[in-house]
Amino acid sequence: MNPDWKNFLLSAKATFKSETTITFTDTTIQPDKALCPVTYLGIIKISGNDAAKSLQGQITCNINDISHAKSSIGALCNPKGRVLSTFLLVKSADDFLMILPKDLLDSIQKRLQMYILRSAVTIENYSEQLSLFGLNVAKNPYDVERFSTSQTDYISVNLCPSQQQQLIIAKPESAIKLWTHYNTETGFKPTNSNYWRYLDLLAGIPWITSETSEEFIPQMLNLDELGGISYTKGCYTGQEIVARTHYLGKAKRALFLAECQSADTPPPNSSIYSLDTDTDQAIAKVLFAMPTSAQTNNEPIKQTMLIVLQVAENANYNLIIKSEPLIPVTLLAESL
Fold this sequence. Notes:
The chain is of the alpha+beta class. It has helices spanning 3-11, 51-56, 102-114, 172-185, 193-202, 239-248, and strands at 14-18, 21-24, 33-37, 41-47, 72-77, 83-92, 95-101, 122-125, 131-137, 149-151, 154-158, 164-170, 189-190, 253-261, 271-274, 284-291, 302-310, 319-321, 327-331.
């Protein structure tokens, strides 16, 4: 994190419990207008005359569809079509900004670097040069196009079509000025960094972490539904498997929003079973889970999660997490 940005947040009464967990003294759990520092994501900048060509041969989305007015979710895959990392790709002047989880940033930067050869491409960790924070309006009456983008002296990307959930990418001085404006003049409230992770979860944004890297093909993460896969752009690493899955209709798993009541948060890649089938074989895996209620009167904590679930023809599920006692898992939506 940029030191000027960090010092500003500290002056705004932020408490850094870690580099990825920030809380505020005067915060509302779910304000109607929220300002959230985004701490779990980092930035790789890809620049140079051959930047677009180099990326096109490695990512699932079509680089030619990305503009200053339109960003895209996408994935980098291994040769077997398994997702190494998901990302948000944003055009900035003639460069590209790849937004992705921090714990994968170093490995993905090295992988991108492997394919440069003699190309005119520069790849650098840009997480300290730019700041990330989010704006969210809980009751927004206007639908917006997902991943539509606006650019002035900062970049704003709409992440959810049903509410105003905007990711702001800005130089630290612009981020400080913009945060101050929204906080003091328009009633936005500084909110704990975990709230933005929760909003991403509700929006169905499938962030891959080190625990889930190389576990799923892109369609299992609903990347096709999110516009993150092009079937016409040509070859990229893992493309043969991804295309075959699409054209043969063999994606038997999809991303679902779910919840359970548990004192412990299910870790990424943990197994979920069905009481209606052989309980020794998992039918779902946890992509990400987080506690979304406080514990009261010794009651279990509500855990909200994204799960990659084997799709049943009758859409009937009787899901559980194995523990003592068994923990029921409830789907919050048929699919995302």
